[in-house]
Amino acid sequence: MEYQTALLSPFDPLKPSLFELLSSQQLSSLLPPSLRYFLVVLTHRSPRYLLPVLNSFDELYALLHLLLERYFLYTHGGGFVENFYGLKRERSLPAGEIPRALIATPDLVRETLKLSHKDIWRNLVVVVGIPYVKRKLDEGYEINAPRALLGGNYTRLPLNANFRERIRHYYRWFLQHIYPSVNSAYSFSRLAFNILYLFDNTKSHDPFLWLIGTRVRRLNSADYAAIEALSSPSTSSTSGARRGNLGITSILNPRILLNTFLNSFKFLLPTSIFALKFLEWWYASDFARQLARKATEGIQLPPPIISGLSSSLPPKPGMVSSKTASPKRETETHKGTLTNPPISSTTLLPILTVSPFPAAESANCPICKHEVVTPTACQTGLVYCYTCIHRWMNGEHEVQERFMREAGRRGRWEDGRGRCAVTGRRVLGGTEGLRRVII
Description:
Blueprint lengths: L1 H7 L9 H28 L1 H9 L1 H19 L4 H5 L2 E5 L7 H6 L1 H8 L3 H28 L18 H36 L8 H6 L1 E5 L2 H11 L1 H4 L3 H4 L4 H4 L2 H31 L2 H9 L26 H4 L1 H7 L41 E3 L5 E3 H8 L4 H8 L29 E2 L3
Helix pairs in contact: 2-3, 4-8, 8-9
């Protein structure tokens, strides 16, 4: 009785949920932009060889996608990404499900519902052809949409136009007037089929799959056994080379190499997803910074030895330092600058800075020592006059020029160009990193 109740139950264990199907579609749509971004990064290093590949990326990806999907449809019964989710494609049954036959003879049902040669090419059109055409139409629409805002001179067919210009004009007219409605109808039909599939009113979740009579199902035990038997070289042929050990000639067979190469993508996809998620977590979390901080806690670096900075060296016995010999001149020379300037991490030279004002005099500019005019904030949070900090960032302030002219300091000091005038820290973006303060 329990067995008969299970057979009459509307629950179908081989029917995938809508969330599985949407996840596989989303993962499949993320592959082209990810590969394009990876190719763009490589093209910056070798533009001579990879720039033609990048310019023809859509066509090359469609060709590789066609080979990959064709191989997986013939061997695994489903698409490349669908096999990752344990899904397959089979022909739809117009008369309904046959749970008794599926339990009694799963191999016979599998062979009966297996996609034929024509069904595989129809599915390739849906999986490869339609997404490729949609990507090209979306790209063309984004490129030609701004032309409609420029007026009729840019959208009107030119006089004495040749055949190519006419085709281009009608193509742009189609993108501007017809394609938005077609794209909206396609998106609405997909949404309608998803809702119908969710409530078991249709066997296909996609309108194009419904047109070609195909549905997506979960892999069962018979499918896994057939896939494993197909991948096993001992059962695929009775020849001696395939029965036990493959010789060099069999291994170098182009067909075997192609099948091995295409089958390796089955393991490359989850590995790449794991690596991508790991890198995303590594750069988003604070674990990497804490690990680097703990690794450098016990390292004590000696202070840098700076040639030409006499103030950092102790005076020799019997000699009087310049600071003691002429305090008045030293005060005038370093007026407004710190006695212990920061050191540049790249050139190991001291950086020219000015001393900040105390809290009671915070309304004055640290550079010109006068009241702040047109207050402008640096990335360090300090406020200066706009003209003072702008000229300081460009290395054109009179304080910098006067300081660098005295005592031959060029080549022995940094004038603070591109840095905060008080802290000496590098300002990202230069003068573009300055922000006006509205009071």
